[in-house]
Protein backbone atom coordinates (compact mmCIF):
# COMPACT_ATOMS: atom_id res chain seq x y z
CA UNK A 1 0.00 0.00 0.00
CA UNK A 2 1.44 3.41 -1.00
CA UNK A 3 2.09 6.07 1.63
CA UNK A 4 -0.77 8.52 2.19
CA UNK A 5 0.27 12.08 1.24
CA UNK A 6 -1.00 15.56 2.10
CA UNK A 7 -2.40 15.72 -1.44
CA UNK A 8 -4.51 12.62 -0.76
CA UNK A 9 -5.97 14.26 2.36
CA UNK A 10 -6.53 17.53 0.48
CA UNK A 11 -8.47 15.72 -2.25
CA UNK A 12 -10.53 13.82 0.32
CA UNK A 13 -11.48 16.97 2.23
CA UNK A 14 -11.70 19.46 -0.63
CA UNK A 15 -9.15 21.69 1.12
CA UNK A 16 -5.80 23.07 -0.05
CA UNK A 17 -2.56 21.24 0.70
CA UNK A 18 -1.42 24.25 2.75
CA UNK A 19 -4.55 24.11 4.93
CA UNK A 20 -4.12 20.35 5.42
CA UNK A 21 -0.46 20.82 6.40
CA UNK A 22 -1.29 23.57 8.91
CA UNK A 23 -4.17 21.56 10.36
CA UNK A 24 -1.97 18.52 10.94
CA UNK A 25 0.74 20.72 12.50
CA UNK A 26 -1.89 22.39 14.70
CA UNK A 27 -1.01 25.84 13.37
CA UNK A 28 -3.25 28.90 13.63
CA UNK A 29 -5.52 30.36 10.98
CA UNK A 30 -8.50 27.98 10.80
CA UNK A 31 -11.55 26.81 12.72
CA UNK A 32 -11.55 23.76 14.98
CA UNK A 33 -14.11 22.17 12.65
CA UNK A 34 -11.66 22.39 9.75
CA UNK A 35 -8.82 21.05 11.90
CA UNK A 36 -10.94 18.09 13.07
CA UNK A 37 -12.15 17.40 9.52
CA UNK A 38 -8.54 17.12 8.33
CA UNK A 39 -7.43 14.91 11.22
CA UNK A 40 -10.40 12.55 10.83
CA UNK A 41 -9.73 12.22 7.09
CA UNK A 42 -6.04 11.59 7.77
CA UNK A 43 -6.85 8.84 10.27
CA UNK A 44 -9.39 7.24 7.94
CA UNK A 45 -6.89 7.19 5.06
CA UNK A 46 -4.17 5.75 7.30
CA UNK A 47 -1.86 8.77 7.26
CA UNK A 48 1.43 8.24 9.14
CA UNK A 49 1.48 11.14 11.64
CA UNK A 50 5.18 10.45 12.31
CA UNK A 51 5.87 12.10 8.94
CA UNK A 52 5.21 15.47 10.57
CA UNK A 53 8.39 15.15 12.62
CA UNK A 54 10.62 14.00 9.77
CA UNK A 55 11.08 17.25 7.89
CA UNK A 56 14.45 18.85 8.66
CA UNK A 57 14.82 22.50 7.67
CA UNK A 58 17.54 22.71 5.03
CA UNK A 59 16.49 25.86 3.15
CA UNK A 60 15.10 29.13 4.54
CA UNK A 61 13.95 32.11 2.50
CA UNK A 62 14.45 35.59 4.00
CA UNK A 63 11.51 37.65 2.75
CA UNK A 64 11.71 41.45 2.79
CA UNK A 65 9.04 43.89 1.63
CA UNK A 66 10.27 45.94 -1.33
CA UNK A 67 9.53 49.16 0.60
CA UNK A 68 12.25 48.12 3.07
CA UNK A 69 14.73 47.23 0.32
CA UNK A 70 15.95 50.84 0.11
CA UNK A 71 19.03 52.83 1.05
CA UNK A 72 17.20 54.29 4.08
CA UNK A 73 16.05 50.89 5.37
CA UNK A 74 19.14 48.83 4.57
CA UNK A 75 21.18 50.00 7.61
CA UNK A 76 18.55 48.24 9.76
CA UNK A 77 17.62 45.17 7.71
CA UNK A 78 21.11 44.35 6.38
CA UNK A 79 22.38 43.44 9.88
CA UNK A 80 19.16 41.45 10.51
CA UNK A 81 19.93 39.46 7.35
CA UNK A 82 23.55 39.02 8.49
CA UNK A 83 22.36 37.62 11.81
CA UNK A 84 20.07 35.17 10.02
CA UNK A 85 22.93 34.13 7.71
CA UNK A 86 25.19 33.54 10.71
CA UNK A 87 22.60 31.29 12.39
CA UNK A 88 22.00 29.39 9.14
CA UNK A 89 25.72 28.77 8.59
CA UNK A 90 25.97 27.39 12.11
CA UNK A 91 23.10 24.98 11.43
CA UNK A 92 24.14 24.03 7.88
CA UNK A 93 21.07 25.71 6.36
CA UNK A 94 20.97 27.45 2.96
CA UNK A 95 19.48 30.96 3.12
CA UNK A 96 18.08 32.82 0.11
CA UNK A 97 16.80 36.40 -0.09
CA UNK A 98 13.67 37.74 -1.82
CA UNK A 99 12.36 41.33 -1.87
CA UNK A 100 8.65 41.42 -2.77
CA UNK A 101 5.83 43.95 -2.95
CA UNK A 102 2.05 43.50 -2.67
CA UNK A 103 1.68 43.35 -6.47
CA UNK A 104 4.44 40.75 -6.93
CA UNK A 105 3.67 37.03 -7.42
CA UNK A 106 4.83 36.07 -3.92
CA UNK A 107 3.73 32.44 -4.04
CA UNK A 108 5.44 31.76 -7.37
CA UNK A 109 8.64 33.27 -5.94
CA UNK A 110 8.35 30.99 -2.91
CA UNK A 111 7.77 27.93 -5.11
CA UNK A 112 10.81 28.88 -7.20
CA UNK A 113 13.07 28.89 -4.12
CA UNK A 114 11.42 25.78 -2.57
CA UNK A 115 12.18 26.70 1.06
CA UNK A 116 11.43 24.51 4.06
CA UNK A 117 10.69 27.62 6.16
CA UNK A 118 10.08 31.36 5.73
CA UNK A 119 11.52 34.32 7.65
CA UNK A 120 9.48 37.51 7.03
CA UNK A 121 11.32 40.72 7.96
CA UNK A 122 9.49 43.99 8.53
CA UNK A 123 6.00 45.03 7.47
CA UNK A 124 3.84 42.92 5.16
CA UNK A 125 0.23 43.49 4.12
CA UNK A 126 -2.30 41.13 5.79
CA UNK A 127 -3.22 39.60 2.42
CA UNK A 128 0.44 38.75 1.71
CA UNK A 129 0.79 37.05 5.11
CA UNK A 130 -2.46 35.14 4.53
CA UNK A 131 -1.14 33.90 1.17
CA UNK A 132 2.17 32.86 2.73
CA UNK A 133 0.33 31.02 5.49
CA UNK A 134 -1.39 28.89 2.85
CA UNK A 135 2.01 27.53 1.80
CA UNK A 136 1.99 25.49 5.00
CA UNK A 137 5.67 26.07 5.85
CA UNK A 138 7.00 27.12 9.28
CA UNK A 139 7.08 30.93 9.32
CA UNK A 140 8.44 33.55 11.72
CA UNK A 141 7.95 37.33 11.59
CA UNK A 142 10.92 39.58 12.43
CA UNK A 143 10.24 43.22 13.40
CA UNK A 144 6.51 42.64 12.96
CA UNK A 145 3.70 41.20 15.08
CA UNK A 146 0.45 39.58 14.07
CA UNK A 147 -1.87 37.38 16.15
CA UNK A 148 -1.46 33.71 15.29
CA UNK A 149 2.14 34.06 14.07
CA UNK A 150 5.42 33.44 15.87
CA UNK A 151 7.42 36.68 15.95
CA UNK A 152 10.52 38.35 17.36
CA UNK A 153 10.65 42.12 17.90
CA UNK A 154 12.79 44.69 19.67
CA UNK A 155 11.00 46.23 22.65
CA UNK A 156 9.69 49.09 20.53
CA UNK A 157 7.36 50.54 23.15
CA UNK A 158 10.11 50.52 25.78
CA UNK A 159 12.47 52.21 23.33
CA UNK A 160 9.98 54.98 22.57
CA UNK A 161 9.46 55.45 26.29
CA UNK A 162 13.21 55.62 27.08
CA UNK A 163 13.90 58.13 24.29
CA UNK A 164 11.10 60.44 25.42
CA UNK A 165 11.95 60.03 29.10
CA UNK A 166 15.56 61.01 28.34
CA UNK A 167 14.41 64.20 26.60
CA UNK A 168 12.07 65.07 29.46
CA UNK A 169 14.82 64.53 32.02
CA UNK A 170 17.08 66.77 29.93
CA UNK A 171 14.62 69.60 30.55
CA UNK A 172 12.83 69.59 27.20
CA UNK A 173 9.24 70.86 27.40
CA UNK A 174 7.78 70.51 23.89
CA UNK A 175 8.75 67.14 22.48
CA UNK A 176 7.64 66.27 18.96
CA UNK A 177 7.62 62.89 17.25
CA UNK A 178 8.35 62.28 13.59
CA UNK A 179 6.60 59.04 12.69
CA UNK A 180 6.03 56.74 9.75
CA UNK A 181 2.76 54.97 8.99
CA UNK A 182 1.18 53.67 12.20
CA UNK A 183 0.03 50.63 10.21
CA UNK A 184 3.56 49.35 10.86
CA UNK A 185 3.64 47.47 14.17
CA UNK A 186 7.11 48.69 15.20
CA UNK A 187 6.28 52.36 14.52
CA UNK A 188 2.94 52.05 16.29
CA UNK A 189 4.65 50.62 19.37
CA UNK A 190 7.32 53.34 19.38
CA UNK A 191 4.54 55.91 19.27
CA UNK A 192 2.81 54.18 22.22
CA UNK A 193 6.04 54.44 24.22
CA UNK A 194 6.38 58.13 23.31
CA UNK A 195 2.85 58.90 24.49
CA UNK A 196 3.15 56.85 27.67
CA UNK A 197 6.32 58.69 28.72
CA UNK A 198 4.51 62.02 28.27
CA UNK A 199 1.48 60.72 30.18
CA UNK A 200 3.61 59.41 33.06
CA UNK A 201 5.37 62.80 33.27
CA UNK A 202 1.97 64.57 33.23
CA UNK A 203 2.92 66.39 30.03
CA UNK A 204 0.13 67.26 27.59
CA UNK A 205 0.41 65.30 24.33
CA UNK A 206 -0.10 68.03 21.73
CA UNK A 207 -1.40 66.41 18.50
CA UNK A 208 0.30 69.18 16.48
CA UNK A 209 3.64 67.79 17.66
CA UNK A 210 3.04 64.34 16.14
CA UNK A 211 3.76 64.38 12.42
CA UNK A 212 3.75 61.45 9.99
CA UNK A 213 6.55 61.91 7.46
CA UNK A 214 5.07 62.03 3.93
CA UNK A 215 6.45 59.49 1.46
CA UNK A 216 7.94 61.69 -1.24
CA UNK A 217 11.25 61.85 -3.07
CA UNK A 218 14.21 60.08 -1.54
CA UNK A 219 12.88 60.24 2.03
CA UNK A 220 14.78 63.38 3.01
CA UNK A 221 12.23 65.54 1.16
CA UNK A 222 9.43 64.16 3.32
CA UNK A 223 11.43 64.72 6.51
CA UNK A 224 12.18 68.31 5.43
CA UNK A 225 8.45 68.98 4.95
CA UNK A 226 7.64 67.43 8.32
CA UNK A 227 10.29 69.50 10.10
CA UNK A 228 9.15 72.63 8.27
CA UNK A 229 5.62 72.12 9.61
CA UNK A 230 6.91 71.61 13.17
CA UNK A 231 9.20 74.64 13.11
CA UNK A 232 6.44 76.87 11.73
CA UNK A 233 4.22 76.23 14.77
CA UNK A 234 3.58 79.26 17.05
CA UNK A 235 5.27 77.26 19.80
CA UNK A 236 8.16 75.36 18.28
CA UNK A 237 9.27 72.00 19.67
CA UNK A 238 12.54 72.02 21.59
CA UNK A 239 13.11 68.30 20.96
CA UNK A 240 12.18 65.69 18.36
CA UNK A 241 11.99 61.92 18.77
CA UNK A 242 12.26 60.25 15.36
CA UNK A 243 10.92 56.77 14.68
CA UNK A 244 14.23 55.68 13.15
CA UNK A 245 17.78 56.93 12.72
CA UNK A 246 17.51 57.65 8.99
CA UNK A 247 14.68 60.07 9.75
CA UNK A 248 16.60 61.58 12.68
CA UNK A 249 19.70 62.18 10.55
CA UNK A 250 17.60 63.87 7.85
CA UNK A 251 15.85 66.00 10.50
CA UNK A 252 19.21 66.99 11.96
CA UNK A 253 20.50 67.95 8.49
CA UNK A 254 17.43 70.13 7.89
CA UNK A 255 17.80 71.93 11.23
CA UNK A 256 21.50 72.58 10.69
CA UNK A 257 20.76 73.97 7.21
CA UNK A 258 18.29 76.37 8.87
CA UNK A 259 21.11 77.68 11.06
CA UNK A 260 19.88 75.95 14.22
CA UNK A 261 22.28 74.63 16.83
CA UNK A 262 21.88 71.02 17.98
CA UNK A 263 21.16 70.34 20.79
CA UNK A 264 21.06 73.95 22.05
CA UNK A 265 18.08 74.99 19.90
CA UNK A 266 16.56 71.55 19.39
CA UNK A 267 17.48 68.08 20.66
CA UNK A 268 17.07 65.08 18.36
CA UNK A 269 16.87 61.36 19.20
CA UNK A 270 16.56 58.45 16.76
CA UNK A 271 15.88 54.74 17.02
CA UNK A 272 17.81 51.61 15.86
CA UNK A 273 21.45 52.74 16.38
CA UNK A 274 22.54 52.23 12.77
CA UNK A 275 26.28 52.54 12.08
CA UNK A 276 26.06 56.13 10.78
CA UNK A 277 24.39 57.38 13.99
CA UNK A 278 27.63 57.51 15.99
CA UNK A 279 29.52 59.04 13.04
CA UNK A 280 27.06 61.92 12.55
CA UNK A 281 27.97 65.51 13.44
CA UNK A 282 26.86 65.89 16.14
CA UNK A 283 26.70 62.17 17.05
CA UNK A 284 23.08 61.01 17.22
CA UNK A 285 21.43 59.88 20.45
CA UNK A 286 19.38 56.78 19.74
CA UNK A 287 17.84 53.54 20.96
CA UNK A 288 20.20 50.62 20.41
CA UNK A 289 18.66 47.53 18.81
CA UNK A 290 20.76 44.36 18.43
CA UNK A 291 19.79 43.80 14.81
CA UNK A 292 21.96 40.73 14.24
CA UNK A 293 20.37 39.12 17.30
CA UNK A 294 16.91 39.65 15.77
CA UNK A 295 17.96 37.69 12.68
CA UNK A 296 19.55 34.90 14.72
CA UNK A 297 16.50 34.64 16.95
CA UNK A 298 14.23 34.39 13.90
CA UNK A 299 16.13 31.37 12.59
CA UNK A 300 16.25 29.76 16.04
CA UNK A 301 12.46 30.11 16.36
CA UNK A 302 12.00 28.39 12.98
CA UNK A 303 14.02 25.43 14.25
CA UNK A 304 11.83 24.94 17.32
CA UNK A 305 8.90 22.50 17.59
CA UNK A 306 6.52 23.35 14.72
CA UNK A 307 3.58 22.05 16.79
CA UNK A 308 4.19 24.59 19.57
CA UNK A 309 1.79 27.50 20.00
CA UNK A 310 2.84 30.78 18.32
CA UNK A 311 5.47 32.55 20.44
CA UNK A 312 6.17 36.28 20.72
CA UNK A 313 9.76 37.09 21.66
CA UNK A 314 10.75 40.62 22.73
CA UNK A 315 14.42 41.66 22.60
CA UNK A 316 15.75 44.31 25.01
CA UNK A 317 16.76 47.80 23.82
CA UNK A 318 19.09 50.41 25.31
CA UNK A 319 19.18 54.22 25.36
CA UNK A 320 22.44 55.56 23.90
CA UNK A 321 23.01 59.22 24.83
CA UNK A 322 25.19 61.24 22.44
CA UNK A 323 25.67 64.93 21.65
CA UNK A 324 22.48 65.46 19.58
CA UNK A 325 20.41 65.51 22.77
CA UNK A 326 22.84 66.38 25.54
CA UNK A 327 25.11 69.46 25.61
CA UNK A 328 26.59 68.89 29.07
Automatic annotation (TrEMBL):
Keywords, sorted A to Z: DNA-binding, Transcription, Transcription regulation
Gene3D superfamilies in the cross-refs: 3.40.50.2300, lambda repressor-like DNA-binding domains
Entry-linked InterPro entries: HTH_LacI (IPR000843), LacI/GalR-like_sensor (IPR046335), Lambda_DNA-bd_dom_sf (IPR010982), Peripla_BP_I (IPR028082)
CDD domains listed in its UniProt record: HTH_LacI, PBP1_LacI_sugar_binding-like
Domain HTH lacI-type intervals: 4-58
Origin: domain of life: Bacteria
Molecular-function GO terms, alphabetical: DNA-binding transcription factor activity; transcription cis-regulatory region binding
UniProt-listed Pfam families: LacI (PF00356), Peripla_BP_3 (PF13377)
Name of this chain's protein: Substrate-binding domain-containing protein
Organism listed in the record: Massilia eburnea
Amino acid sequence: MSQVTLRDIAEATGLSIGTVSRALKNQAGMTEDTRNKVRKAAQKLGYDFAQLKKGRIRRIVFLLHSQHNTLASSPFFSPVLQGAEEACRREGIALSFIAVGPADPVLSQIRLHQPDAILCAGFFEPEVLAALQQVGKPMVLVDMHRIGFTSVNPDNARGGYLATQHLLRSGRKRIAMLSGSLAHYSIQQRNHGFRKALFDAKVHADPDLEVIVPSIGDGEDGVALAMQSLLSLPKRPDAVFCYNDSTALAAMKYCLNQGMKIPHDIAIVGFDDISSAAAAIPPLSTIHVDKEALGRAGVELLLQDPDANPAQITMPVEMIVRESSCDD
